[in-house]
What we know:
The complex is a heterodimer of chains A (637) and B (349).
Chain A: E1 5-9, E2 12-15, H1 19-30, E3 35-38, E4 55-56, H2 68-78, H3 85-104, E5 119-120, E6 130-131, H4 137-160, E7 167-170, E8 173-181, E9 184-192, E10 198-202, E11 205-208, H5 229-236, E12 241-242, E13 247-256, H6 268-271, E14 275-277, H7 301-307, H8 323-335, E15 345-348, H9 355-361, H10 363-373, E16 382-391, E17 394-395, E18 411-413, H11 430-451, H12 461-476, H13 483-497, E19 501-502, H14 504-521, H15 534-558, E20 567-568, H16 576-579, E21 581-588, E22 591-598, H17 604-607, H18 612-618, H19 621-636
Chain B: E1 3-13, E2 16-26, H1 32-41, E3 62-65, E4 68-71, E5 86-89, E6 96-98, E7 101-102, H2 105-113, H3 132-142, H4 149-153, H5 170-181, H6 190-197, H7 208-212, H8 219-235, H9 238-247, H10 262-267, H11 284-289
Parallel strand pairs in B: 1-5
Antiparallel strand pairs in B: 1-2, 3-4, 3-5, 6-7
Helix pairs in contact in B: 3-5, 5-6, 5-8, 6-8
Amino acid sequence: MTERIERHHYDVVVIGAGGAGLRAAIEARLAGKRVAIISKSLFGKAHTVMAEGGAAAAMGNANSRDNWQVHFRDTMRGGKFLNNFRMAELHAKEAPQRIWELETYGALFDRTPDGKISQRNFGGHEYPRLAHVGDRTGLELIRTLQQKIVSLQQEDKREFGDYDARIRVFAETTITELLLDGDRIAGAFGYYRESGDFLLFQAPAVVLATGGVGRSYKVTSNSWEYTGDGHALALRAGATLINMEFLQFHPTGMVWPPSVKGILVTESVRGDGGVLKNSEGKRFMFEYVPDVFRKQYAETEEEADRWYTDPDNNRRPPELLPRDEVARAINNEVKEGRGTPAGGIYLDIASRRSAEYIQKRLPSMYHQFKELADVDITKEPMEIGPTCHYVMGGVEVEPDSGAAMGHVQGLFAAGEVSGGMHGSNRLGGNSLSDLLVFGKRAGEFAASYVDSMEKRPTVPAADVEAAVDTALAPLARETGENPYKLQQDLQAVMGDLVGIIRRKGELEDALTRLAELRVRVANVGATGGRRYNPGWHLALDLRNMLVVSECTAKAALEREESRGGHTREDFPAMSAKWRTVNLVCSLDGDKVRLEHKPLPKIRPELVGLFDRGELSKYLTEEELAEFDTSATEGASK
Amino acid sequence: MGEKRQFKVWRGDETGGDLQDYQVEVNEGEVVLDIIHRLQATEAPDLACRWNCKAGKCGSCSMEINGMPRLGCMTRMSTFSEDETITVTPLRTFPVIRDLVTDVSFNYEKARETPAFAPPADLAPGEYRMQQIDVERSQEFRKCIECFLCQNTCHVVRDHDENKKAFSGPRTFIRAAELDMHPLDAREDRKTYAQQHQGLGYCNITKCCSEVCPEHIKITDNAIIPMKERVVDRKYDPLVWLGSKIFRRHPDDDQLVQSGSSHAVSAGPAMTGVDLPDAHERTEEQEVERGVNWHRRVGPAQLPAVGANGRLGVSEAAFDRSGAASPFGDDVEFPMPPRDLNYAHPDQD
C-alpha cells in the first residue's frame, strides 16, 4: 500500500509550541529562516499556560540590590549545585532582557508604583524577582509569543502576500520520528491528529521544545501532552539525556475527586491548622519526627495545638516538618495500607477550624475546590498525596547553543525537555525565564547551524516507510491491548515504585515491570480509524513514555544519595561525591544505557560568589582545597 | 463506587452522525470531562475530544452540554439532577471534524487578520513605563483563554455561516479593545479598524458572549460597547458605515473604497442626484450613493424572539426549532439591501 505523505521543506522545524518553542521559532524567523512550528494541541494551548507564579529575572525593580550574581546563586542553591553552571549563568544574565523584550511584543505585566514591571517574592529567591500578571503569568507569556508570531506572519504577508511564507504553525500535529542522514538531522515525520494523514518535514535543523514527562505518573499536574516525546525522539536520534532521576513532586496534591486530581494544595493549609490523618483517623505525623528534629517538634497533640496560638512556649506541630519528611511519612502510610481508596491520605482542616476562619485565611483554595469539584474544604477533609509536576532532567545540551550532545548534529533542545539548567531541583519562577532564554538561544543557533552547512542532508526513503509502518501498526492489531489500560499500568508502576520516595528494592521491581510493559506496549492496538482517534494517538505516545520511564527508573536506582528531586530512603543524605557526577542515558539498540559523566567544573569567579561555609555543604574535600588555594592566590595577587 | 448515569454523546463526522446513548459510572466530585475520559478508557476509545490542562486554564475542552456552550472541565456533574440525561454535542458554529472536535480555524484566521501590537518607536526594551490602573483595562481582556465559547454562541455567526466572512466575533473584538486601551500601542485606528473590517456593527449587544465566558470577561460591557460608542462618535452614522461595509469593501484590500470610486466614476454623469432612477428601480449601490435621509421616521428595530428572562436564548435547545433566533429578526438575510436598513435613534420616540 502506498501512503500519501504531505511533504514540506523548512530550514528549522520547531517541535512544541509552548514558551520555548515559540521563542525559538521567533528567533529563527528573525534570522531569516523558514520555520515550521509543530503543536500537538491547538496553537496557544500549551502547558505553559499552567504556570502561575511568574518569570524570574533579576531586573531589580523591587529591590535594586538584585543582580544576576544573586539570581545565579539562588538557582545553584535551589539545584543543590548539580546545575550546569554555565546554563545557570546565562539564564541569570539574560532573563531580564528576555522579559523586557516581551513588552515590545505587547505583554502587560503588573506594574510597580513607578510604572516598571512589578516583581514578587517566591520561595528560594533572595529578592522579589518574579515578573507576573496576577496568577496567570504563563497565559500572558504564551499569548504574547503567539501574537508576536502572528505579527511576524503579517509582515510576511505584506512582503510575500502569504501569511505562511516564512513561519507556519502546524496545529494538532504530532511528530513520531526524527529522520537522519548519517548523524545529521534530515527531517521529521508525523501525522495530523485531525485527519490521521502523514507529513514529512525535510529540514536540516530541529528544535525540541516538547516539555515534560508527567503523564507517566498516576497523580500529576501535567496535561496529556506531557508524554516525553522530545526526550524519546532525542534518544532515538542518538542524543543523550541527563538528570532523569530528578522529578519535582509536591507532597500535597489532590488525589480525589478526579476533577481536581493533581491540583496542588498550598502548604499554608497545614500552617493554618490543617492536620494529616490516615484512613484509621489517626494523626500519624507524630510517629515520623526524625531524631534531628525532635527538639523543635511537639510530641503530643495538645502541645502541637497550643503552638498555633502560642508559638513561643510550645513546639511546632509535626505536620510542618520539611517537605521531604512529610512526603516520606505520607508515602509510608499509604504503602502500609492506611491510605484512602484513591491512594492518598486526609488533610483535615474542616474539623479543626471554623468555616469562617478557613474562608478568610484560604480564600483561593476554598473557591478553587468549590468551583472545580464542589468540594467544601470547610466541611470535609481533602484527599491528598504526592503530585508530579516538573522534570529537571532532559536532553543533554551544549549550554550556549542548546545543541544536543551525543552523536547527532542539527538537533537543539530548550525548555523543560532540556536538562542541566535546574540541577536537581527547579526554583519556582525559573521555568518561564528558562523558556525564554534558552528558547531564543536554540532558535538562534539552529539558524546559524543551517547557515554553516554546505550541503543539505537528504531523508532516506526507507526510513520514511519504516516510520509509516510503525505509526500504522497499532491500527492493524485487531487483538492488541487497550492503550488506556497500558497507560494506567505504566502510571501505577511509576507512581508506586519510582515516586517521590525511592527504595532500592522497589526500583529494581519497577525495572522488571517496565520490561514486561515493554513487551505489552509493542503489542498495543487501537480500534477505529485514523481520523482524530485519541486511542491511536495514545498508543503511539506509549513507547515514548515507556523509554523515558526506563531512564528515570535506571538513573534513580543508580544514584545512591538524596538530592533535590531525588529522595532515596536507603541513602537519605546528600553526598559530595555524587555531586560531581551526571548520569547520562543513551539508547543502545532499544536498550537504555546509563553512564557516569563528570560535571563541568564551575569557573573560579563563579565559585567565588559563595562563601566557604556554604560550599562545604556541597563540595568534596578536594574541591574545597582547590577553592582555598585559589582564594589565597587571589588574595596574594 | 459511583452510580450509572445516562449520557447522550454526539458521534460522527462532517458527513453526519447522531447522538449515542451511554450508561456511565459517575463518582462524587466529577466533571463532564471526567466522564468523557471514562468513556474513552472503557467503551469508546476512539471518542474524539480536545482537552489539555483540565483546570479551566487552556480553553481546549469547549463543548455544548445540554445545549449550553461550556468547558467540559468546569462543568460539575453535581449541577445536574441524578435522573437527568446529559447531552454532549460539539460546538455548533464550527464545522465538525469528528465527534466533539470541531474545526475552529475560523477564529485563528480572524486573529491573524487583526493588526498586531505596534510598539512605540521611541522606547527601547526595558524603558516601558505604565501605571497599573492603565494596564488593568487591557489585562481583563488578556485573561481570555481562547475557548471560543463566545464565538460559538454569537448569533451573528451561529447558524449564519454567510456572516463569517464579514464578522470576526467577540474574541476578536476584545483583542481590538485590548490594543485600543493598551497605554503604549502606537496605532490610533483600532476602533475604525474594528468597525470597518471586523464587523463590530453586526453585534446587537445581546450579551450572550459575556454570559458564556468562563473567565467572566465583561465582553459586551467593557469591550464592545465602549468600542461601539466611539465608533458612533467618530463616524456618527452606523447606517452609512454598514452599507459601505457590505457593498463597498474591496475584496483584497484593507482600505475602504470611498463612495464615488471606480464603479461610480465610470458611471459618470448618470450618477447625479437628479438623474437617479425612481426609488424602486434603484440598485442597492445607487441607494447607498444617495446617502441617507436622516429625517425619515423609521419604526423601531424588529426584535428577535426572546426567552422568559427577556434575553435571547443562549442556544437553540431552549427553542422549539433547530436554528437559533437571529438577533436581527428571523426574516432577515445578509447582506441586507440598504433600503431595509433601519436605525431608530433611542431618543426618537
